[in-house]
Amino acid sequence: MPKQEKNMKRKIIKQANQAYTITLPIEWVRKNNISEKSEVDLSIEGRSIIINSQNNVSGGKVKIDFSGMDITTVYRYLGALYAKGIDEVEITSKEDISSKIISALNYFIGYALVSQEGNKYIVKDLGGEKQSDLDEIFKRVFQIILLFFESAVNDIFGKQEETIESLKSRDKEVNKFCLFLQRAINKMSYPDPINGRALFTYSYALEKIGDEIERMWRTNIKYDIKKSPALKKLVENSYEGLAKAFDFHFQFNSSRIGAIYSTREKVRNESLKLKGLNGNTFRFVRQAVKIVEDAADLSHLTLIMKL
After folding, report:
1. 261-264: long-range pairs with CB below 8 Å, 24+
2. DSSP string across 244-279
3. What region, left, alpha or beta, does residue 83 occupy, with left being phi > 0 and alpha being psi -120 to 50 degrees?
4. Do 179 and 240 lie in a common domain?
5. Would residue 8 count as lying in a domain?
6. DSSP 8-state symbol, 7
7. Which helix (H) or strand (E) segment is 213 a member of?
């Protein structure tokens, strides 16, 4: 596994013109692709000075034994390494797991199985993502989540053509982009370290909202949901709450935050007015409410990043 970062001490060097300099650790220089022509960002946080590079971070390599793992565990391990920003994974196993690896790699943008010698496998990132604007990637992922929710509303209260298998394919694409965002955050330096941490938390929260939309949609496909105009309005308002969270982040204005919580309260009240629900319809309503609850919570992360 990659080495843990260590605290280092450096001596201050006084220059002739009264300036003070320190040397940068060579490991950090290499990992961040720094050259004599590079520029870095400095931010002052109390007694600390934080140095950030705008270059992509080298994710490094890991070796890991996948012996005895089922396909779900293989996916979970590769997903964690992918999101962490690892560029190369050397896998060993006592049995042939090539089909499990190939199946899991369908969920990751850029990862590919590049070689296999016996029961030793090499997975590498061939994407080489070069995007320098994390905010633009984040915006794209948020829009994908919104489109996923909009498609769910249209299908559930429309022709209901979606199947469990087609829904799995949709959900896979959503998760793929959420993981890509998490990987990008870990691979690329964010100018402000606090906002960088908040953005990663935001990306994880969006992934959980996408999962809840998928659960609500799947509940409709699998069970007898008693639909009514009131139920449709509730779900549409839940979508509206998520859309308002998007607007609040990308068109930041303090007046918008009240509208988010107002929509959440509206959905809560509408859910209480629905009577005579069977168990599966009640589950469906709870999932729709959970989405708007989580959407409202996103405003806290937006405030951390914007204020």
Report:
1. 261/296, 261/299, 263/237, 263/292, 263/296, 264/292, 264/293, 264/295, 264/296
2. HHHHHHHT--HHHHHHHHHHHHHHHHHHHH--S--H
3. alpha
4. yes
5. no
6. -
7. helix 193-222
∠ at Cα 207 (174, 83), nearest 5°? 85
Per-residue pLDDT of 233-290, as tens digits, reads 999 999 999 999 999 999 999 889 999 999 999 999 999 999 999 999 999 999 999 9
**Closest C-alpha to 223, from 167, 281, 277:** 281
- Kindly state whether residue 296 falls inside one of the protein's structural domains: yes
State pTM to two decimals: 0.78
Q: The domain spanning residue 84 has which CATH number?
A: 3.30.110.40
Does one domain contain both 67 and 119?
yes
Number of domains in the chain: 3
Q: Are 184 and 275 part of one and the same domain?
A: yes
Average pLDDT, the chain: 87
Domain boundary (78, 95, 125) is at 125
Measured between alpha carbons, how far is residue 267 from residues 60, 194, 207, 231, 242 in Å?
46, 32, 21, 10, 12
- Residue 101, classified by CB atoms within 10 Å of its CB into exposed (0-12), middle (13-18) or buried (19+), is buried
Question: If we measure between CA atoms, which residue out of 179, 57, 63, 187 comes closest to residue 122?
Answer: 63
Co-location of 257 and 293 in the same domain: yes
Domain shared by 157 and 115, yes or no: no
The residue-averaged pLDDT of 290-297 equals 97
Q: What is the pLDDT of residues 118-152, one digit of tens each?
A: 889 999 988 765 545 788 889 999 999 999 999 99
Domain extent at residue 102: 61-125
Last residue of a domain, one of 99, 125, 151: 125
Contact 92, 63 (CB under 8 A): yes
* Alpha-helix residue ranges (DSSP H) falling in 50-163: 71-84, 98-105, 134-156
Pairing type for strands 88-92 and 61-65 reads parallel
